[in-house]
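Dear support,

I submitted the protein below through the web form. The confirmation email said the job was done, but the results page showed an empty box. After a refresh the structure appeared. I'm attaching both so you can tell me whether what I see now is the final result or a partial one.
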Amino acid sequence: MEAVVLTVEETAELLKVGRTTIYDLIKGGLPDSIMIGRLRRIRYTDVITYLKQTAARESKQ
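What the results page shows now:
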């Protein structure tokens, strides 16, 4: 079973980018993230949705 929520580090590893890139994306609103106490988490499904939207946008160009 896939993790329901990912840390910023796990998300960065999944997307093969740095943590700073993930934080920049979060500041821009994509993907959605949630705070659990002081910890930021990103839903796995939101990462997949973000990837699909990005792929669709790039295929139109």
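Response: this is the final, complete result; the empty box was a page-load delay. The chain has a mean pLDDT of 91.
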